[in-house]
Structures are given as structure tokens and as C-alpha cells.
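pls design
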């Protein structure tokens, strides 16, 4: 994909090309031509608690196809840097993970080609660097007025250390907008007690907290939420190939979660937080 210029393709060729690739984000490239992403976040973006971004410097952590980086650009950011780990083999994999699962995620990631393809199609100049959240360093990339962290903590062995690195690159008057996966049943059963479920078997799925647990992660890393967390559901896109609704899913917690995801979207919570002074 890296050698293909989408601007040189007519509508039919562009539509055919994007249909033959796997995408994480749904993005409109031209009127009526969209990438068939696993998630379609366009209805969610306007509902999030964005601070004022006009003229600000922003960072998108774990950008994938770059939906949120472009959202910040459209909201007036003067500069947006996007970071990601393009090779899934460098992710936080539990011991004993099967090679086939790693390869499948590598195929979906496609070495970040989706980001560059969309960048060219929309004539954007967003810079992307291959950088782990654990390695965020103001001496390397500077500091930011807003850091967006989306659907990432679930995949990290050490989410609080990751948030501490996010804090390290936040300006003193800046903020972090965290939008991450939550365990819906734990949220309902324990609305105030910080608690999380642990996966860590065969894939980079680790801690999934209830809403109170996600807030605790944020405060433990040195942030102060500006308001109560907002529960949101991330709608599935046309490229989603996971479980479809069926009555048998109600028998297990994982099945009930899949049913909610298929019908309403993936349960997340959004938290806008400011770094506490050292």
C-alpha cells in the first residue's frame, strides 16, 4: 500500500482497493467512499469532553489508522503528532502466545500502511513516529497541550506506568483525554469500588477495569479528572468480524460482553484529566 497514491485512483478503483484491505477505523476518503473499519467512531467523537484545541499541540497515542489524530486536527490543533508500535511482535504479549495470533494482528496492522494511505487520501501532513507509550519522553518529542489515549490500556501489561509517561509529556496546563475499555458487569456490580478483570492469556488483552478502576488508574498516575467519567459505546464498523448476537452468548460473562458489543458497541469510559503538580 505504501507505494500507492490514492489521489491517483478514480472512485471505482479507490472503492475496490479499500474494500480489499483490513482497517481498524472507518474513515471517509471521498463522498460515499469509506474504509470498512472494525469500528466506526464518527458518532462518538462529537460527544467526548474535548478541551479547546485551536492552536494547540496534540499527541495521539496508539494511533492505528489515525482517526483521532485527524479529529484533533479538524478541531483546530496547530500540530498533531501520532505515535504507534507498528510491529505487533513488540506489544505486551503474555508468555505462550500463539504465533498465528501474532501474525493475524500483524496482518491487520499492515505496518501502519493504513495511516499513510489515509494521510495521502485526505492530503493531511500528520507526522507519525514509531514509539511506545512506555518510551514517551519530553526530551525526545517535547510536551503537549492535549494527549489523547484511546483503547490502549487494555493491551498494556502496565497501564499505570504508561499513564505516568503520558503525564511526563503533558504541559503543566495541558490535559489527557483517556477513552478506554471498561468491564461493564464489574461497573454495574461495583459502581464505587475500583476493580479490574485480568485476561493475559494468549493475546495482548490485560486489565479491563470498571469505571471506578479506570478513574483510579488515572489518579494513581498523577492526574486529576476535571469531571465525572462519561460512559460511551464504540460502534462496530462494517469490517467487524467478531461474534454476532445469539441467545447462547447470555450464558457467560464473555458472551454477554460480546452481545453488548455487537448490539451497542464496545463499552468504554471517557475521562478528561489534568496533570497534578509534582
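designed seq:
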Amino acid at each position: 500500500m505504501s507505494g500507492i497514491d490514492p489521489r491517483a485512483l478514480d472512485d471505482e478503483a479507490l472503492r475496490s482497493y479499500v474494500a480489499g484491505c483490513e482497517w481498524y477505523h472507518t474513515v471517509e476518503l471521498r463522498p460515499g467512499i469509506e474504509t470498512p473499519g472494525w469500528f466506526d467512531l464518527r458518532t462518538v467523537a462529537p460527544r467526548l469532553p474535548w478541551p479547546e484545541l485551536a492552536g494547540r499541540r496534540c499527541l495521539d497515542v496508539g494511533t492505528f489508522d489515525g482517526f483521532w489524530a485527524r479529529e484533533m486536527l479538524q478541531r483546530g490543533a496547530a500540530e498533531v503528532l501520532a505515535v504507534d508500535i507498528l510491529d505487533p511482535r513488540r506489544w505486551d504479549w503474555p508468555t505462550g502466545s500463539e504465533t498465528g495470533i501474532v501474525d493475524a494482528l500483524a496482518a491487520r496492522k499492515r505496518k501502519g500502511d493504513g495511516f499513510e494511505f489515509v494521510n495521502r487520501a485526505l492530503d493531511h501532513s500528520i507526522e507519525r513516529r514509531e514509539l511506545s507509550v512506555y518510551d514517551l519522553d519530553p526530551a525526545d518529542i517535547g510536551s503537549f497541550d492535549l494527549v489523547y489515549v484511546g483503547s490502549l490500556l487494555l493491551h498494556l501489561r502496565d497501564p499505570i506506568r504508561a499513564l505516568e509517561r503520558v503525564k511526563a509529556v503533558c504541559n503543566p496546563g495541558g490535559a489527557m483525554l483517556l477513552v478506554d475499555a471498561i468491564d461493564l458487569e464489574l461497573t454495574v456490580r461495583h459502581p464505587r469500588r475500583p476493580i479490574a478483570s485480568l485476561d493475559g492469556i494468549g493475546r495482548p488483552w490485560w486489565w479491563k477495569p470498571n469505571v471506578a478502576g479506570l478513574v483510579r488508574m488515572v489518579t494513581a498516575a498523577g492526574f486529576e479528572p476535571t469531571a465525572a467519567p462519561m460512559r460511551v459505546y464504540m460502534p462496530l464498523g462494517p469490517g467487524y468480524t467478531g461474534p454476532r448476537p445469539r441467545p447462547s452468548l447470555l450464558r457467560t460473562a464473555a458472551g454477554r460482553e460480546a452481545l453488548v458489543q455487537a448490539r451497542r458497541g464496545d463499552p468504554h469510559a471517557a475521562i478528561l484529566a489534568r496533570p497534578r503538580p509534582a
